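Q: Could you predict the 3D structure of Apple domain-containing protein?
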Amino acid sequence: MARADLGYNGRGKWCSYKRTTLILCTINIGVALYVLHSLYTSLYIYPYNDSQTAIRYTPDQIRKMEESIRIRKASEPIELVKLVKEIKKELLSEERQREAVESWRKEKLKANRLALGKTLNSSILHKEAVMLTRALDSNWAKLSEEIGLWIPLEIINQEHDDKPEGATEFEEEILPGRQLPTECHTELHADYDGAAVKWGLTHHKESAYECCKACFDHAERAKPGEKKCNIWVYCPSETGCYSPDKYEHKLGECWLKYAEKPRLNFKDKYSESYRNSHPNAPLIVPWVSGVVTA
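A: Sure. Here are the predicted structure tokens for Apple domain-containing protein:
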């Protein structure tokens, strides 16, 4: 009885394993069929949806797009492209000419040296051969320059100072307005330091003469103990005057200042080191100044 039970139980377990395997295979086949079905249907569904959801442009939008394409094509620098191509062809032709001349020079030099190695009957032919060898060998650069075939690798331009002795570095400038008297001690391209007794940002004058006169007037009206103007600084430039501060200085600014010992900020030109540290600084000092005695 015990063996019969064991045999029956073993057969029952075997049957359960087989049944489980069949069930798993069936499930896998079903999943595979579902995936294939999904892929198959997507090939037809998505193109149809894309065609339904495609953007449709109005006739006005199509006309504008065509117009933009036409304008873009019309704005292409066709003439410039043609000119560049022609220049490239010319440069290529010149390069080929140089190569041909250089090849001829080498062949001629080689043949001439071979001729020198042989005995020449005429002394004139020998001298000509020697001269030609020297010209083609050592003096070729000079010879090619004379016949227009040599272009230097580097061109050095030298500036020549043609100013006569005693001439000033700056051209004589004419300031607008009335001529300034000698009492103003006018200095072109000069900027003096000092304590401002009248701010130029809000104190504009028509000319340097008016600015100098304002300095004298301020000194005369100053009360005892107040600082009297003894420096005037005027901006005569229509494009404004440079200053290292944060303000934008415009034409007509008239700065009235006082200094016990007047000292120049800048004169004639801003130094190279200063312009390197202040990239916005011009080369020439634009201000006009004067130190007066009230």
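Q: Anything worth pointing out?
A: Strands lie at 186-188, 190-198, 231-234, 254-267, 288-291.
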